[in-house]
Amino acid sequence: MTISSTNSPAPRVLLVDDEMGILESLRILLKGEGFHPITALGGRAGLERLDDGEPDVVLTDIRMPDVSGVQVLAAVRERYPACPVILMTAQATLQSAMQAVNEGAFYYIQKPFRNDELLAILKRAVEHRQLRAENTVLKQEIRKRDRTSAVVAVGKSRAWQEALRMAEMVAPTDSTVLVTGESGTGKEVIARYVHDLSGRNDLPFMSINCGALPESLLESELFGHVKGSFTGAVKDKTGLFAAALGGTFFLDEIGETTAATQVKLLRVLQQREVIPVGGTESIPINARVIAATNRDLEEEIKRGSFRGDLYYRLNVIALHLPPLRHRADDIPLLAEHFLSRVATQRGEKPKTIAEAARDAMMAYQWPGNVRELENALERAVILSPGATIEASALPARIVERRAEPLVADRTPATPTLEAIERAYISWVLQNESGNKSRTAEVLGIDPSTLYRKLARYGEEAA
After folding, report:
1. Which pLDDT tens digits describe the chain residue by residue (462 residues)?
2. Cα–Cα distances in Å, from 59 out to 2, 27, 46, 148, 399?
3. In whole angstroms, what separates CA 383 from the centre of its chain?
4. CATH code at position 179
């Protein structure tokens, strides 16, 4: 499995061990397989070799008398974050190796090991390093373009800004995050935002909807499987946790998982390792986990359908996304963003929204949240031949609300505060000839607050 070619230089592998015999054996093996080995006798010599420039891979023993392999790992992570580090460990230091993987090591291999096993791991490390290098430039350009236009940045409401601030605070950490919110509020969007702002942003972002697959298939996707473990398993499969390669793994709708899957997810979070379906050997993983749900998991725990220990492992950082009805001020901004995006896709100029259509959108409760708004506007663009989207182009559920008078025919003997408020708003609205902007100004409230009140009272937006 010679790895080098005439078109690319041999991958530079820094070998660090305190036994000269092991170093020499590894040097001969790697050189014969197309690598460029660089040897260092002991951890201190390994640190000095780092001054010569960044290697493609570091292969180091853990237990050395002067400087440990874990210290070598820390130095490489600080100076060359993209350089993968593989740890060689005896059984006595296996726990230290697993801990080091959690701290950023690419892999660990247990002594004594087979040559083909080591070479396969080195090849994966080199490919991983090359992929990171190739993806970094591309992802930087994508982020520059997407940061300014991504829907996550659209919104000035207090509730949304608080959610963004929390996301930005937790992004640089490796803490597990639990994102909660109704369907359509943008849970995966915020998870990607956290990933983009983290130190893992040049590594994969993997995601899976836990409610979209049956239990057996979900576990195979999450943890992988070995050949022959079940009917149809014709070859080994790498699970998504392992495929994340130290990036971010987003578990959407975690509340839909079964009790058996929850036990295995708990093991992943506790031990930072997975066992493929049908397998016996564990595989270390180093992906950051972000989970999301539209359920109240504390209530699910009381009902016995969700494990409390898994919940507390997931809920290290809680990030709640507000429903769109609680951020009505953002509706015009989101609408403008979606119309601009649709126009770009269609090669057209963005359409504008007529006042009646905008009023209807502001008053509507949006049970499907941002996703429903996006779909409604895409539909409206298709149904609007002109440059303006009229109310008639919106779905009927948005514009055809039940009409009720703001003031009842018979006033109760002691009117409620709500009845008085309804009557006063109606009076101001009539005095201002139905102009809602001026009505809101006279009332001293934000226009979005007025729209919500009118929607609650059942008044038709005219």
Report:
1. 555 444 568 899 999 999 999 999 999 999 999 999 999 999 999 999 998 888 999 999 998 999 999 899 999 988 888 899 999 887 656 676 677 777 788 888 888 888 988 998 999 888 888 777 666 655 554 554 454 335 666 788 888 989 999 999 999 999 999 999 999 999 998 998 999 889 888 888 889 999 888 888 888 888 888 887 777 777 778 888 888 888 999 999 999 999 999 999 999 999 888 888 888 788 888 889 999 999 999 999 999 999 999 999 999 999 999 999 888 889 999 999 899 888 888 888 999 999 999 989 998 989 999 999 999 999 999 999 889 999 999 999 998 764 444 444 444 455 667 678 888 888 888 877 778 878 888 888 877 778 777 776 654 443
2. 18, 11, 10, 41, 65
3. 34
4. 3.40.50.300
Q: Residue 252 pairs with which residues in a beta bridge?
A: 209
Whether 448 and 395 map to the same domain: the answer is no
Of the candidates 251, 258, 252, the residue with the CA atom closest to the CA atom of residue 306: 258
CA–CA distance, 172 with 194 (Å, rounded to integer)? 8
Residue 291 included in any domain: yes
What's the domain range around 41?
Answer: 12-130
Q: Are strands 237-238 and 283-284 parallel, antiparallel or unpaired?
A: unpaired
292, 189: one domain? yes
> Got the DSSP string for 305-321?
SS-HHHHHHHTTEEEEP
Q: Which of 304, 322, 340 is the last residue of a domain?
A: 322
